[in-house]
Description:
It contains 6 helices and no strands. It is mainly alpha-helical. The longest helix has about 70 residues, at about 1-70. About 10% of the residues are buried.
Amino acid sequence: MAVRKRVDVAQAEQNNATDKRLASLLSRIDEEVEFKTQECAAEIGKRALKEWLKGLMAFSVAIAGGFLMWWSSTSDGFHYWLGTISGLAIMSVSVAYCVELIKLLISGDLTKDTAALMKEFAMKEWTKVFLAFVSILGGLTLSIAGFLNGRNRWGQFDLNAYDAISIFIGIVLMAGGITSFLTRSKSYKGRIGMTKD
Length: 197
């Protein structure tokens, strides 16, 4: 009987040692998987940022090529042909990069990578409050500027399209900022909690 107890104790100790080694191995595997996941997310973010920068630069270069062709159209002779051919070459190369960006967007690869990149740059609470405050002040300024520009010297309102658009954008900005503040208030959260019950 004593021999059997010793064998059971030895086997229990061996099982405990095996369990500890297995737990250690599993924790190391978890750490490696987490590290690889973070490394992969960083690579995806870098690739998405690179593609966006390349596409935006291509759009701006295409506009510059078109401007070069328009600018050279006022001259004649060698300058006209040089400017037109150079602008056309610049536009065609940059449009090829733009098409590549559009293909990546349509396929959904760049969209997923961009979403993963945006998760890394999640805004902090004070940034959201600051942006809401700036939105309210900017909207108020635009609305007041639109009203003041629409007033003629006799005190009557004569709003043109620019003033009306300024007032509309100002109202939308103020509404967005006020809504942001309201959704963060305790009374709003209390009402939402009551309606869920």
